[in-house]
Amino acid sequence: MTPAFAPRTADASDAIPVHLLDEGDIEARIAGWRESGQANLADWAEATKFTGKAGQVQVVRAATGQPLAVLAGHGTPATRRRGRFATAGIAAGLPAGTYRLECDLDGPALEEAALGWLLSAYRFDRYKSMPPAEALLLAPDGVDAKRLEILAAAEFLTRDLVNTPASDLGPDALEAALRDLAEAHGAGVSVTAGDQLLTDNFPLIHTVGRAAAQAPRLLDMRWGSEGPTLTLVGKGVCFDTGGLNIKPGTSMGLMKKDMGGAANVMGLASAIMALKLPLRLRVLIPAVENAIDGSAFRPGDILPSRKGLTVEVNNTDAEGRLVLADALALACEEPPEMLISMATLTGAARVAVGPDLAPFYTDDDDLARELSEAGGRMADPVWRLPFWDPYEALIEPETADLDNAPSGGFAGSITAALFLRRFVGEGQRYCHFDIFAWRPTGKPGLPKGGLGQGPRALLHTIERVLLA
After folding, report:
1. Of 49, 61, 60, whose CA–CA distance to 23 is shortest?
2. Its domain of life (predicted)?
């Protein structure tokens, strides 16, 4: 599906007005309606005891039952800080029709309201038919409608990829999805797969994926010929059994989403290309399945890497950092002006910040500040965690250069980020996101399932930092 605003007709007054009303402001609005000859709105608000509480919706109807207007609660500043995309909940409960917002919002708040309405249209209907969203919104004056449609489409792409089970989205299908994205925007794709990974010096990617039915591979997409350079690296573990350190069933059930880093990177790339940003983009995705057969790698193995560092395997379920390591090393052989990695890397990050926040790591304070501000502006919450240098010793075993899973269990997200940083060039502007890419429970505009975490904040930051 392609998220879009309703086509704007010559007379927008034909659209049904949605009055977005703050809690505590109703008495003044009722008085204003009576003074302006809209007694029907005032009567309806009083009869239904409408308060403007967040999530409250009343459809004002004519005697024939035809909807004339909508009263929609926008809550208070305090309740709005506790959630996003209030308009998505409004849209979900409305009858079919074309609507327009009547509100006092502007700037980022108006953009969030319009984007939330678009996101309410998401349906994952590949395996089960679902009714389409029929409450269409006219793009409010003061927003860049095309840009918001592109952002929503990028989010839909990410969600669809994450929601698709591994039976239909293994390394083969992930490669096909990237090729489709590239073809849509005139990008080029090269692939290194199977034993060619060993020939071309990607030993960690090969080792992690060699036990699976579908060959491991490194996907490499390039787009753009002018401007600053940006490289995105996304973890594409299409399913993660845990390898020989096999996960229990309760932990394995969601592992179709272990390619959520790749899905988020692809969503971000789709927005960059659709917006035709003046930069040179590279996307690297190590696409593998961490499976089990006689060739599976083992705890205690010491593995070579593209960068020359050796890695002792203390847990085969810490495989994501291994495939990312080779991809990051490749990325830094042509050092980009900005390097970003995204991965569903650690459960420790979920314990630290829960499922809503996207934690990120960077040594660049200016970049961190821009990202934090962008997260708030773009309704895409992020949170900085530290590259804590004193923990470097935790990833240094006695028998190899690096340990992929330090014992003890403390600071698991930080030690994983430090591990990745070892494969990044000195002085490289780098940011790593340790995301969940999943909603365990649904909310308006944020249904249960696959989720984009960080791409909108990153897009805004890229424009401000690389393209200012």
Report:
1. 49
2. Bacteria
By C-alpha distance, which of 107, 113, 65 is closest to 89?
Answer: 113
pLDDT at 468: 85
pLDDT at 83: 86
Residues 328 and 374 in one domain: yes
222 is catalytic: no
The sign of the dihedral angle between the CA atoms of 22, 23, 24, 28 is positive
Tokens linked to 148: 């918001």
d(CA 396, CA 323): 19
State pTM to two decimals.
0.97
283 contacts 219 by C-beta, under 8 angstroms: yes
Residues whose CB is less than 8 angstroms from the CB of residue 280 and which lie 6 or more positions away in sequence, other chains included: 222, 223, 224, 225, 226, 227, 228, 229, 230
Beta strands in 327-381 (DSSP E): 338-343, 358-362
Could you confirm whether 321 is annotated as catalytic?
Answer: yes
What CATH number is attached to the domain comprising 137? Answer: 3.40.220.10
- Closest to 318 in 3D by CA, of 211, 408, 237, 201: 237
Domain that holds residue 29: 12-143
Q: Are 449 and 162 in contact (CB under 8 A)?
A: yes
d(CA 418, CA 126): 39
**Gap between the Cα atoms of 233 and 265, Å rounded:** 7
Catalytic residue among 247, 384, 443, 464: 247
> Which residues are within 8 A (CB) of 164 and not within 5 positions of it... i.e. 6 or more apart?
126, 173, 256
Query: One of 29, 210, 321, 429 is an active-site residue; which one?
Result: 321
State the 10-residue block means of pLDDT for the chain, 468 residues long. Answer: 84 88 91 92 93 93 92 91 90 93 95 97 95 94 97 98 98 98 98 98 98 98 98 98 97 97 98 98 99 98 98 98 98 98 97 97 98 97 98 97 93 98 97 98 95 98 95
SS3 state of residue 431: strand
pLDDT score for 10: 57
Q: How far apart are CA 216 and CA 204, in angstroms?
A: 10
Based on the fold, state whether residues 138 and 158 are members of the same structural domain. no
